[in-house]
Input
Amino acid sequence: MKVLINAVSAKLGGAATYIQNLARSLPELAAPEDSFLLIVPPEQARVMEARSLRIRVETSDAASGSYSQRWWWDQVTLRRIIAREQPDVLFSSANFAMHFCPCPQVLLVRNPLYFSPMYFERVLPQKGTRLRAETAVRRWLACRSIAAADCLVTPSQAMLEDIGRTMRLRGTRAVVNHYGVPRARLRAASVPDADASRKLRLLWVSHYADHKDLATLLRAAARLRRDAPRPFELILTLDPAQRGQHTSMPEAERALLAQLGEVVRTVGVLDYEATWRLYADADIFVFPSLLESFGHPLVEALASGLSVVAADIPIHREICDSAAEYFAPGDDAALAALLRRFIADPEARAQLSARARQRAQHFIWEDHVTRLLKTLRETAELRAQSVIRQRAEAPAPERSTL
Output
């Protein structure tokens, strides 16, 4: 099987982590006869190592330009590459598909902003007219892309259900394929924390965006600072100067961050290995996001054996189940109360940590890649079988009597 992977938009965050891990895993998990061409942004190509002759990497900065440039890439330039490479299947890894694709196409839809009721109810109304209009256009394009694909893949059932509320999936083949962490990252049972004098480390891992609801976490930290039962430190993987992030932090949140002083430590946007070291040193992971398609940091925190506190939304319940404690989205008082309880109770943290490690077993990266390869192969075979049937059912041309 020859696979062309269109990942031109994998510049930051979960999309970048996904394509990097996929490139690392394919040589080990794919069949010996399989080959892959990955098309990625230049910044991703620089960190991808050539691990196999069966994997080639080409670059494109199409996602850095205008919408028209991205459309031209997806519909014209990529079509030329398909004509040149003749792949058995195209894997479009980020929301938008090629229409009338000449080969079978699997589309991964991973952006919840186009489909989440929470986003349309709580976040988008606060935005300007231009952004609301752009979101409407991109949502329409994402829906048309889903209709154009041979197979839709989502990283969670919650994401698929949001899509189903937005558009009719008439006859569309849909597959839920959870992401995961590399099996080697699963941590053994940790030693209970016996040093009540050290600062307890609370961790938030994400890029900055409105829907991540960092403001609720900062307000909860301000409440905790007044009456926490033990010294604590909140660690954030962001840079207040906004370097390497998707969107800018509003001035009100920057002011709140400054007021918290030494309670908060910002470490900037970190690479994959450095982020895992943060998990290893933390005690409680906090995830206040209003919407996610999956939430890589949640599973990474579970695999690291952290106590997890998350906003009570369907995707977080799907991933964590009973391995997390939940608070109402946007309720900083409820979040502060939960954190206060876990800061004071090492036994409660230990119990939640044990459940976290057990839950992480359900989300293994190698299993995701194996399922993805199966989906790609099945999609290519189904298109081939359909073509054979159409040819067999077509009426034979009439012979001329002349």
About this structure: The mean pLDDT is 90.
